[in-house]
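User: Reviewer 2 asked us to show a designed sequence for the structure in our supplementary figure. I'm pasting the structure tokens here. Could you produce the per-position amino acids so we can include them in the response letter?
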């Protein structure tokens, strides 16, 4: 919906005669569309450029594929730095990229999946730099920050919080790296916000009094939530989750049967035993932004296994305590920013929760730190379940996407062959 509502419209405008650097507050049709005027635009710039080059707007979605390949390269390289075997490196990288949000949006102009992949690139690159301070990693870090900050407003916020917790790790373990860390990140922020993000960050500040307008406004130009109205709460949240705390919402969103309440004939999220959820419920993944059980029908089982793995690692492995605690402290801080982060597409980073303990279990096995068969089997079970959830969503969605696109193409061809006038609203 959003992808065809304002995102694709922005691509058409940018490919036409609208230059937001010189006309930051006017669209070509002279309609004040807040989303187009004031939101970050990096994916739109790319899409508009290739649209002009190749003559079809669909090619602009190639951005999603390019980011996917870039993520694969840096995550795989990070696994190799940790001395994982090539097989485990490939499997872990694929699991990272199987995030259902990525595959639900990969054929659309929605950019939540891109946001996730860019944050993954940033984290993998900065952690690789901590192990091996090559200039290549810093270049990737700076590029990732620029793209991340200009994909969505939350991209800038997630980057700032992530870098803050990496900084905490440096204070405790790597104090010699603090000075170059600061220097590189200052350069990256200047590029991301001051140059590549001139529009919207600086133009919003000049014309609306706040760089994050319309999410946060000023006295003269109030933000979208200033009047107390929250459309996401009123129209996008299952009725039995409205008014609930974020932990309760997350529980409903991950321990219920797949669905898209309050749409598609369902008003509420239905708590369900994951072992009784069958393929008949997978139709929910035809939707491009599945709300309930959006990370897969059996992701709740993964979360339970993850909790057990984290507990064992915290108790038995002193070396892993700090990374685990810092990661989950950062995750909780990010989650606390919005009560709407129960929704997978608004907070796709939840997919990383089981992946960190899996990575640590495999690193533990590689280093032969108290190596035992139970931990090895447990890790492979966790990996298999993560993969099953990701594959179910990806396969179901892409099959539907392909069939629907083929049918649409036939319908359009039929309409063209009819040679009759067409009214377009």
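Assistant: Here is a per-position design you can include in the supplement:
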């Amino acid at each position: 919906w959003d992808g065809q509502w304002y995102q694709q419209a922005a691509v058409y405008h940018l490919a036409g005669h609208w230059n937001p650097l010189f006309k930051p507050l006017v669209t070509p049709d002279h309609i004040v569309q807040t989303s187009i005027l004031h939101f970050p635009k990096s994916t739109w710039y790319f899409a508009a450029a290739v649209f002009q080059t190749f003559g079809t707007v669909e090619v602009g979605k190639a951005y999603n594929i390019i980011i996917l390949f870039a993520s694969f390269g840096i995550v795989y390289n990070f696994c190799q730095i940790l001395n994982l075997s090539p097989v485990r490196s490939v499997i872990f990288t694929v699991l990272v990229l199987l995030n259902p949000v990525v595959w639900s949006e990969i054929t659309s102009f929605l950019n939540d999946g891109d946001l996730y992949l860019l944050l993954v690139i940033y984290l993998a690159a900065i952690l690789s730099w901590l192990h091996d301070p090559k200039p290549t990693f810093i270049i990737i870090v700076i590029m990732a920050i620029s793209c991340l900050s200009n994909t969505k407003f939350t991209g800038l916020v997630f980057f700032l919080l992530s870098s803050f917790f990496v900084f905490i790790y440096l204070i405790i373990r790597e104090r010699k790296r603090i000075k170059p860390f600061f220097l590189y990140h200052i350069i990256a922020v200047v590029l991301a916000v001051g140059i590549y993000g001139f529009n919207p960050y600086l133009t919003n500040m000049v014309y609306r009094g706040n760089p994050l307008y319309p999410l946060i406004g000023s006295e003269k130009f109030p933000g979208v939530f200033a009047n107390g109205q929250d459309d996401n709460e009123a129209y996008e949240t299952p009725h039995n989750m409205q008014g609930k705390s974020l932990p309760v919402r997350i529980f409903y969103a991950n321990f219920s049967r797949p669905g898209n309440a309050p749409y598609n004939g369902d008003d509420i999220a239905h708590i369900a035993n994951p072992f009784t959820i069958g393929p008949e419920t997978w139709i929910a993944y035809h939707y491009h932004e599945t709300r309930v059980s959006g990370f897969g029908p059996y992701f709740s089982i993964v979360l339970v296994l993850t909790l057990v793995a984290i507990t064992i690692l915290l108790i038995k492995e002193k070396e892993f305590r700090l990374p685990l605690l810092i990661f989950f402290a950062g995750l909780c801080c990010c989650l606390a920013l919005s009560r709407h982060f129960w929704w997978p597409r608004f907070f796709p980073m939840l997919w990383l929760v089981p992946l960190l303990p899996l990575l640590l279990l495999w690193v533990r096995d590689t280093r032969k730190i108290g190596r035992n068969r139970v931990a090895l089997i447990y890790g492979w079970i966790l990996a298999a379940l993560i993969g099953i959830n990701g594959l179910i969503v990806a396969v179901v969605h892409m099959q539907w996407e392909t069939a629907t696109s083929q049918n649409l193409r036939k319908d359009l061809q039929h309409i063209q062959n009819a040679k009759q006038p067409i009214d377009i609203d």
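For the response letter, you might also mention the following. The chain is about 60% helix and 0% strand. Residues 373-418 form the longest helix (46 residues).
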